[in-house]
Design a protein that fits this description.
The protein is built from nine helices and no strands. With 259 residues, it is mainly alpha-helical. Helix 2 runs parallel beside helix 6 and helix 4 packs across helix 7. The protein is elongated, with a radius of gyration of 21 Å.
């Protein structure tokens, strides 16, 4: 009798889940352009994901700017390069740190919320009731949430980046007596189009990944309250891993394009 090794079984289940997730994503693109368009539900999800995540993103961005500047300032002072602080901070936050950190925060806030909500609807058989009544639950529940997450995350990242730069400017104003006008003049001189474009493009993919995985885990949640908890937890874990993979691909592609 063949022996089943845990590593082999885990790899097998992982690839099965990746295949199911790919099929789930393919169904999203098929349903996206078909009628009816649930525009009202889409707007409601945009409000839920965007407006209710704004305070969390703002606080995260502000603390990120404060901490990053406070940690970097002593090192730059040793080399007499404090004047490069606005350029370094702005490029680092806009290119990499801001999008990744804020996407991870939103994965915990939005991804777990979607997973728990759809998981609860699956457990209480609300999704089954929608199918019986002739409503397309995938169109109403999944497409609207994925599309809202895809569109709202870039906006949240832009807001978070700006607030992070405000936090950094505050530290420079207090520590280095640098005016806000001078700080942001140096910031806009340092930033180029090739810094903004890759970060903005990959933020759309981050939002799509958060919405897709959260909906997938919740939509196919197992029965019982424990299944809802597992759906919310696995949505955050799987999304976080996927965000790092997408970030690596985005950095690699932008490096190839821009050299």
């Amino acid at each position: 009798m063949a022996r089943s090794f845990p590593i082999t079984a885990n790899l097998y289940s992982f690839f099965i889940e990746v295949g199911e997730l790919s099929h789930f994503a393919g169904r999203f693109f098929r349903e996206l352009f078909s009628r009816p368009f649930e525009f009202r539900e889409f707007l409601r999800q945009c409000y839920q994901m965007g407006n209710k995540s704004l305070i969390l993103v703002s606080i995260t961005g502000f603390i990120l700017g404060l901490v990053f500047t406070l940690q970097s300032r002593p090192t730059l002072m040793e080399f007499g390069a404090v004047s490069w602080m606005p350029s370094m901070i702005s490029i680092s936050i806009v290119r990499e740190i801001g999008p990744v950190i804020i996407a991870l925060i939103c994965a915990g806030r939005i991804g777990s919320s979607i997973g728990a909500e759809l998981g609860s609807m699956r457990v209480t058989e609300q999704i089954d009731a929608m199918e019986v009544s002739g409503t397309n639950p995938y169109k109403f529940l999944v497409v609207t949430r994925i599309l809202a997450a895809t569109l709202m995350l870039p906006i949240l990242i832009l807001i978070g980046d700006f607030i992070a730069l405000l936090g950094s400017a505050l530290v420079e104003n207090v520590k280095g007596n640098v005016s806000f006008l001078l700080y942001f003049n140096q910031v806009f001189e340092a930033l180029e189009f090739r810094d903004l474009l890759p970060a903005t493009v990959k933020s759309f993919f981050f939002g799509f990944a958060i919405g897709l995985v959260g909906c997938f885990k919740g939509y196919y949640s197992s029965k019982g309250t424990a299944g809802v908890g597992r759906a919310a937890n696995s949505a955050v874990v799987f999304t976080s891993l996927l965000l790092f993979v997408l970030d690596f691909i985005a950095v690699f592609v932008s490096d190839v394009i821009y050299g």
